[in-house]
Design a protein that fits this description.
The chain is α+β, with helices and mostly antiparallel strands. The protein has a single domain, classed as 4-Layer Sandwich (Penicillin V Acylase, Chain A), CATH 3.60.60.10. It has an 8-stranded mixed sheet with strand order 1-4-5-6-7-8-9-10.
Length: about 350
């Protein structure tokens, strides 16, 4: 991938979405076409039927956060792509809930040097479809997010020092009628918060049909939130100020959900254990440079912390899972270090977000 597209906008949600749509029109179109192919060939899901299903659930989003709908309408208007297509794209996590084994996150609480970080693993076909989006909705904080073109949000940071990293989770409670998209709408709402307590209000009140993990920070404060469709639990950092999360439940109250789930990939446990062992070798003293090396680790390749395409699997390369990027967010310093693609093949780019 060449230089990542940088987009900045300020104003009302529709206007910001429109600027975002205009600036990333080609990437949004490419992203949607890629998902159409993946949904059909890998899961047997026709886009037309997904549009119908998503449209029926639009009221759930509007009731939770009407600004999110306006933002999506702006993306559609600016890109010239139908609102329904943008809506389905923003439900992609809920649509593919049957396969969620991706991403490794690490948080380190260390005063002014606090950070949260993650490797983002998903379909190889969308690797080149990421944009850096900075915006400010009137009256809100400035938000920086690294996001799939056409989606509302993913990992990111706001000017209040609130940072967000995301891990896929699955539970037997997932599925059924689509409700509020966990990543794109709930995550977007989180990054538009000024007060951290508001995040707990959002998580407590949102109607959702999927499990997910949010690694969150506000400046030198870190907490991990595990969500199921019906409940949530928080996890504090350990005595060394560290938390590691992959794609299974680790809170005491939710751990039993792992045993109830068929198809949970063993690599999620290996990646968690491996990251913790590497951290112990560092005497629990993390910094930006050594966490980069953890994210480049290839133990149990190809389903390692730095995940690569499994060439032994017989399926289209665009639908194979790999690390699409690595992101480290310094929440006290408003700095983002990131790669596009596997971090083992790239130098991290450092960007002052605000």
């Amino acid at each position: 991938m060449g230089k990542i597209i940088e987009i900045s906008a300020e104003g009302k949600p529709f206007h910001i979405g429109k600027v975002y749509g205009e600036r990333s029109r080609e990437l949004i179109s490419k992203n949607i076409e890629t998902y159409k192919t993946i949904f059909l060939h890998k899961y047997g899901l026709e886009w037309k039927k997904l549009v119908e299903k998503a449209y029926k659930s639009m009221e759930e989003i509007s009731s939770f956060n009407a600004d999110a709908i306006e933002f999506m309408k702006g993306i559609a208007d600016g890109s010239g792509i139908s609102f329904n297509d943008i809506l389905v794209l923003n439900y992609r996590y809920e649509i593919i809930f049957s396969e969620r084994s991706s991403c490794t996150s690490i948080g380190f609480l260390n005063g002014e040097n606090t950070f949260i970080a993650q490797n983002w693993d998903l379909y190889a076909g969308i690797e080149d479809n990421t944009v850096n989006l900075r915006y400010r909705i009137s009256g809100g904080p400035t938000v920086f997010t690294q996001v799939e073109a056409g989606a509302l949000t993913h990992r990111g940071l706001n000017s209040e020092g609130i940072g967000l990293c995301i891990n896929a989770l699955r539970s037997k409670e997932d599925g059924g009628k689509l409700k509020v998209p966990a990543i794109t709408v709930l995550g977007w709402s989180i990054l538009n918060c000024r007060k951290f307590s508001k995040i707990f209000d959002l998580v407590k009140d949102v109607k959702r049909n999927s499990s997910i993990n949010f690694l969150l920070a506000k400046k030198d404060f870190i907490v991990d939130l595990e969500l199921t469709p019906k409940d949530f639990e928080y996890i504090e950092v350990d005595d060394n100020g560290i938390v590691v999360h992959t794609n299974h439940f680790i809170s005491y109250r939710f751990k039993e959900l792992n045993a109830d789930l068929k198809g949970l990939s063993g690599d999620t446990f290996v990646r968690e254990i491996r990251a913790k062992q590497l951290i112990r070798k560092l005497n629990h003293s993390l910094n930006i440079e050594n966490v980069k090396e953890i994210f480049r680790d290839h133990f149990d390749y190809p389903s390692s912390i730095c995940r690569h395409i499994d060439e032994t699997v017989d399926q289209d390369s665009i639908s194979k899972i790999k690390t699409l990027g690595s992101t480290i967010l310094e929440t006290c310093k408003n700095i983002c270090h990131y790669t596009i693609g596997n971090p083992c093949k790239s130098d991290y780019i450092t960007s002052k977000t605000f």
